[in-house]
Input
Amino acid sequence: MQIMTHPRLIPTLFFLFGILCLNPLAAQIYRPSKGIELRVNALLAKMTLDEKIGQLTLYTTDWGSTGPTIREGYKNDIRSGACGNLFNSHTTLFVRELQKVAVEETRLKIPLLFGFDVIHGYKTIFPIPLGEAASWDLEAIEKSARVSAVEATAAGLNWTFAPMVDIGRDPRWGRVMEGAGEDPYLGSRIAEARVRGFQGKKLGDPDAMLACVKHFAGYGAPIGGRDYNTVDMSERYFRDFYLPTYEAAVRAGAATVMTSFNDYDGVPASGNKFLLDNILRKEWGFEGFVVTDYTSINEMVNHGVVANDKEAGELALNAGVDMDMQGAVYQRFLSQSLKEGKVSQAQIDEGVRRILRLKFELGLFEDPYKYCDAEREKKSLLAPEHRAAAREVARKSIVLLKNERQALPLSKSQKIVLIGPLGDNKSELNGNWNGAGNADDCVSLREGLANVDRTNFMYIPGCDFENPDKSGFADAIRAAEKYDVFVVAVGEKAMMSGEAAARALLGLPGVQEELVLELCKTGKPVVVVLMNGRPLAIPEIAEKATAILETWWLGTETGNAIADVLYGVYNPSGKLPMSFPRSVGQVPIFYNEKSTGRPFDPNSKWTSKYIDEANSPQWPFGFGLSYTTFEYREPKVIAAVTAKTALTVSVTLTNTGKLPGEEVAQLYVRDLVGSVTRPVKELKGFQKIMLQPGETREVKFTPTEHDLSFYRRDMTFGTEPGEYEIMVGGNSQELKKVKVKL
Ligand code: NOJ
Output
C-alpha cells in the first residue's frame, strides 16, 4: 500500500471548500419560468376556496388502485372543480374524455394533471429499476426513462410517480425492486439520470413529463423489512445514507416529490415539517409541489398522531403537503379548518400556486390536449427503436454471478434443455409496476433461445412456482441423457416483490430450489437463470450450480436479452447494486457499514460476528463477472487540486482475457479518523469501460470536495483534514488501496 501525503492540499482544499459548489447540480434545480407568476396570480385571484382545494386534490380513476377509495364519483368532482388532478387514467382516448370535462365544463377551465406509475416503462417495459441499476450505465438508464416518457406522454400522461429513490438495504422489503439498491452514491447518480430522462430538455416539450421523487423520506428502512413499518434512526445516519438520493433528484430538477407512508423520528412523513419544510424546501430550495402517497394523510390517524381525518389534513398542510392523493381529506375538511383558523389562506394559496405553476410550465393552458394525439400514440408505443433500447438496457442489467467449467457462453453446437417455470413464461416478465405493459408483447426465454437456434433445444417445465408437486422432476432429470446443458429459469413471481410484498424467507419459492439441486446431481452443467425482484439467499445453489445469471425482471425484451448473454452475443457487464445475503439472519446487509470497536476477526470470539454464519454476503455490492477477466494495478493518487476536484486517483486496468468486455471500475474511500465514526468504505466514483483483449487503459477518478464531505460532529457538512484510504477495484470486496492525507 502506498502512502501519499500532500500537505499542500490542506489549505487549498479548505479554501476551495468555501467556494466550491457543494452541490454541483444546484443549477439544474427546478425554478419557475419567468412570466409564470403573473399568470398564476391572475388565475388564483379568480378562484373560490373550493376550486382552490380542488387543485390540491388528486383522485384515482377506476383503472387502478393501491388502497381504499374514500370517495366515489371522480367525474362529478372534476366537473364541479373539486378534483384538479387524476391518476391511473391513460390512453389518449380516456385522457381526452376526462380533460374535456375539466376544460369545457368547469367554471375556470383549469386542465388536469394526469399521473401514473411509469416506473420502468409505459408500454415497452424496461428492466425493473433494481435491475437497471445493475447496469451501472447512466446513459442507458437515462435513455430508458426518456423512452418511457416518450411513450407515456404519447398516451395522455404528463406526470410519472418516479423515480423511486429509496435506499434499500433489506431484501425482505419488496420495494427494493423499484429502487437503485443500497448505495447513496450510485443511487444519486441514477436518480439524476432518471429525472433528466423523464423531464427531458424542457417541461414544455410535448414528450416531457413531471418526475416525482419518492418516497420522501426513508421509506426503504422499515423495521424488519415489513412494508409501511416504522422508520427510526439518528439524523446523522439518515442524512448520511438515506437523504442523499432524494436531494440529488431534487437538485437534478425533479418538479414534484411524494411523501412516504412511514413515520420518521415519531412523525409520519405526510405530517413531518422537519422533512418537508426544513430539509426539502429550506435546505434544498425545492420549489415544486409535494403530493402525499395514497391516503397517507388519513393514515396519520392510525399512526396515532391525530384523532381524526380533519386534524390529519391540518397537520399535513401545515407541514408542507400540497396535494392530497386519494384521501379526500383536504376536500372534506380544509374549508372548515380554515374557518377555525387551524390552517391559513396563505398556505392554501401557496399550495395552489405550486401546482398551477407546473400546469403552466407544461403548457397545458395553451393546449390541454397536447398529450392526446392518437396518431402519435399509435406510432410511439412499442416502436422498434423503443424495443431495441429495452433490449440494450436489459442485457446490460444482467449480472453473471458464477461461471465454472466455462459453462458460459453456450455454443450453438451444444444441445440445450430449458427447464423451470420461467422458461416458457410471459406473465411474470414485466415484473411489478409494469405500467401499461402487456405480457403478450414480451419475448419469453424460450422464444429468445429459439431466435438463436431452434434445432438444438427443448423445454421441460419441471415444476411450478409455488406448487409442491415434484412429478415433473423425472422428465427434467432424464433429459441429462440426451442434452449437454441445463438452462434452468427459476425465481419469484412478479407480484412477490413491489408494494405490500415483504418476504420473511428469501429462498426460491416452492420446490424450485430442489429441482435445481436435483439437476446438479446429474453432473451436466446447470446454468441457473434467476428472475426476481430482490436479492435472494440461495447458498446451496450458489455452491452447486455451474453458472448463475441474475436477470431480475427484464421486461418486454427479456428472452432476447438473456439469449444474447447466454450465447455470448453480449458479454455480461452488470454489477450488483445490492448485497446478496447467505441467509436471512444477516439482513440488513450492506457494504458501507461502520467498523465497530471490535471489528470482525476470525480468530477472536469477542468480535462482531455470527457464531453460525459468515459475516460476508454471498455476493457483495458491486460484484459481477464477465466472460473475460480484468486486472487492476495499484492505484495512485495524483497530487492535484482543481476548482472541481478534491483529488485525482489513477489506476491501470487491463483486459487479461480473450474477449472484448466492459468493466465497471469502482472507487471507494474511507476517512480513517473522523470526528464521528465513518463507513469502512463508501463508493465515490465508477466508470464503465470497454476494453479489447489485452488492452490496457489508465482510468482516472476525480472525487469532489462534496464526495469527501460528511456530517461532522457538530452536524455541519464538510471534510476534515486527515488520512483517507482510497480503494479501487471491480467490486466492493476485492480492492487495491492507497492512502492519502488531506
Ligand atoms: C402507492 C405507492 O406507494 C406509490 O409509490 C404509488 O405511486 C402510489 N400508490 C400511486 O399508485
